[in-house]
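Anyone opening a protein record will find just a pair of labelled lines. A complete record is shown below as an example.
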Amino acid sequence: MIKVVSYNMHKGIGLDRRRDPRRILDVLCEIDGDVIALQEADLRYGTKAAVIPHRLLEDHSPWRAVQLHDRASMGWHGNALLTRKGSEVLGSAALHIPALEPRGAIRVDVSIDATPIRVFGMHLDLSGLWRRRQARAILTHADDCAPPMPTVMMGDLNEWTPNGGCLHDFRREFAIAPTGPSFHARRAIGRLDRIMTRGFRVRDCGVHNSALARKASDHLPIWALIEPL
């Protein structure tokens, strides 16, 4: 069993308007995932430094951030992937996708307890037209990756329609886990955050709706417990 998690951490700013990286890390520790996709994990301006300092992650968590470049940023256009320190990273990539505003997606191939898994993290556009273009670009990249691996795609898709838009594109190849609504954290009604799998069976899934999570960001984290087919 592998536990995957997706969390739009809103640059660490909670509903109390305080930026608190340690609180974000505490929420992640409550969930205890094996692979975690973060969105809005970097500051927006300047060096786009990581919201969760690398030293804090190293000293107070079981995870490491997959490094995609040498900058202060934790990821790519705010997308970051965390893996357990005991796992083996086999490869990674930052995806350049069509975008109206700065958007991106990232990929990591990782071995967890000798199980290879390919994970995509993403934060898609507010525009439905651009979301579909981005979905097709990400799916094309996934199809071109070698060798083939069981694959998870997750992140904030910004898709309000339950079955249309970019979900229509992803659903052709991926099963969408019924995690539930995760936005807004104060009263969740929108299923903007999604976990999608190919080559995995979803054993359980849901929204992490703890008291701490309801304060730490405007999104609630989602999770799924998966195993290879």
